[in-house]
Write a structure and sequence with these properties.
Elements: E1 2-3, H1 11-30, H2 36-56, E2 59-63, E3 66-71, E4 74-79, E5 83-90, E6 92-101, E7 105-113, E8 116-123, E9 128-134, E10 139-142, H3 147-156
Parallel strand pairs: 8-10
Antiparallel strand pairs: 1-2, 2-3, 3-4, 5-9, 6-7, 7-8, 9-10
Amino acid sequence: MDFAVDRRIDPGLSVGLGVLLAFVLMFAAQSSDPRTAPVIGIAAALTVALAWLPGLLWLYRVEPGAIRVRGPGGWISIAAESVAQVEAVEFRVTLRTFGLGGLGALYGWFWVEPVGNVRVYGGKSSGQGVLLTLYTGEQILLTPKDLEGFLAYLRRLGYKVKPPA
């Protein structure tokens, strides 16, 4: 079953990017060289499009044998038998240790309060996610849009979902 990723974008960030793009386009329009305006306009539009692209690729697919994550690098599989525990958590990303972070999208290793250094595949704005603890001790944070539905489906498939505190 597929689950969307919660990747809400901060409205202030969206407005800020819009204002920045408007300034770039105004600068391009003021240029005395007629070839400058289209080049700057296209570059600015491509920059904004590329900033949004990583967040559009996300999807979680839960199958009986694995949780699969579609991200910028393709599909990643987390085998069901490697998952020791699943729990809902409230979190705050404080530091990127090794990963990519874009407009509401996170991919890689991040320092997340109160958990610590974890692998994150998802968004950061909602502050709620699903923490997978593997038998190896590694932790992975996912941020499904339908948090309760995601946990219920994992429970139905036999994953060890920790009851809420």
